[in-house]
Design brief:
With 398 residues, this protein is α+β, with helices and mostly antiparallel strands. The chain contains 14 helices and seven strands. Strands 3-2-1-4 form a four-stranded mixed beta sheet, with helices on both faces. The protein has a three-stranded antiparallel beta sheet with strand order 5-6-7.
Length: 398
């Protein structure tokens, strides 16, 4: 069930997954009922109904509690008030994951929390600027996330990349102070970018005209710089003007659509990312640890992204991109399911370690049972299958 959480509309993967789940429940019930009297059969079914009602009530209560804490973030007047709110939101997401094991739900809760906390910081910043007599931004603006935060796959707040888009260049000076002031407030909340991708840097803020000029310059330079543009395909609005954010997304998509040859070269390199298996077909270990980011999450996300960029699929979340590839006929149902399971496998191990306060990237496979190791092998094989498709369909004759 958790594997398919968040699917929308008529989704063949959802239908298949739900049908399999219902069939498993049905078979389990029938196996129990075969040995019961008529009266005991009724008691069993009533027990199942009561258990489902309790589960639904618990889910509803969790949603209401989480929404209530999010609303508190909207009312906070300074960062000191946001700190305990952020801690509660983090604890609620971790508790839900511990009970349900849903990667999709955990990412959703963490992403929503990030957006609301970041939005509150920006609101507080504007309020402080106005109270201090400092000119507030003149015109529209949008604060956008990229990377894992852009894809809605947030687990750690210290790995969140942001950029700022604002009204045209004549209004740009009023955004210099605004883009820098939130940085220390976000740092107090441990929200930041490991790579320095933040609007506090002039490289990561600008008007649409400035962003268009930067993108054009990168396109002219070509080569590795085009990977910078490909990563902008993950852009997602966090706070600010939705129409301006849509213009930025369209700008990136338009620029990518004409870069066919550079995209082929990027796809070739992406398809040749190092496998998680060594020459002998064993897991590639580093001091006894397996690197989930290097051999699992990284190749899966990158290969799915380059395919969706090449075939103009608009989704940003990896799971939705996989579905987009399926419905365009770029991959079949079997591979789509294998990739969704791989995505869950990699992130599930990482989230468990992060919640335990450990490095979520490296896992000790010696702690795995036979089933978990088999699942990891199958997940890496699924990524390998995708890489072959990327190489042949995009970087090859594509």
């Amino acid at each position: 069930m958790a594997l398919l959480l968040g699917a929308r509309g008529e989704d063949i993967l959802t239908r298949r997954g739900t049908a399999e789940f219902i069939e498993q429940v049905r078979q389990g019930l029938y196996a129990r009922m075969a040995h019961l009297s008529a009266g005991d059969e009724e008691l069993l079914l009533l027990g199942v109904r009561n258990a489902l009602e309790e589960e639904l009530a618990a889910e509803q209560g969790c949603r209401e509690d989480f929404s209530r804490v999010l609303d508190e973030a909207d009312q906070a007047e300074d960062v000191r008030e946001l700190m305990p709110i952020q801690d509660r939101l983090r604890a609620m997401a971790a508790d839900y994951f511990s009970r349900r094991g849903s990667v999709a739900a955990y990412h959703l809760m963490r992403t929503v929390a990030l957006d609301r906390i970041t939005g509150a910081v920006l609101r507080i910043t504007l309020s402080q600027m106005a109270a201090g007599g400092v000119g507030v931004p003149a015109g529209r603006w949008c604060w956008m996330a990229l990377g894992a935060a852009g894809r809605g796959e947030v687990s750690r707040f210290d790995a969140c990349d942001f950029l700022l888009v604002h009204e045209e260049i004549e209004a740009g000076s009023s955004f210099v102070g605004f883009s820098g002031r939130p940085a220390p407030l976000l740092e107090r909340l441990s929200i930041g970018s490991r790579a320095g991708i933040t609007p506090a840097s002039s490289s990561w803020r600008g008007s649409l005209t400035e962003w268009r000029q930067r993108i054009a310059a990168r396109a002219v330079e070509g080569g590795g710089d085009m990977e910078w543009l490909v990563r902008l395909a993950d852009l997602r609005l966090v706070a600010g003007d939705p129409s301006l954010a849509a213009e930025m997304v369209n700008l990136v998509r338009s620029a990518l659509s004409v870069q066919i040859d550079p995209l082929r070269e990027i796809a070739r390199r992406t398809a040749m990312m190092q496998s998680g298996f060594d020459f002998f077909g064993r897991l590639r270990l580093e001091r006894g640890m397996f690197n989930l980011a290097l051999y699992g999450i990284g190749p899966l996300v990158a290969n799915v992204r380059i395919m969706t960029v090449r075939f103009d699929i608009q989704e940003t979340a990896t799971t939705e991109r996989i579905r987009g590839l399926l419905y365009q006929g770029r991959i079949d149902v079997e591979l789509a399911e294998r990739l969704l399971r791989a995505w869950n496998c990699f992130y599930r191990h990482g989230i468990r370690r992060e919640i335990a306060g450990e490095n979520g990237i490296l896992v000790d496979t010696e702690e795995f049972g036979e089933d978990a190791e088999r699942e990891l092998h199958a997940s890496l094989e699924a990524v390998g299958s995708l890489q072959k498709i990327v190489y042949s369909s995009i970087s090859g004759q594509g």
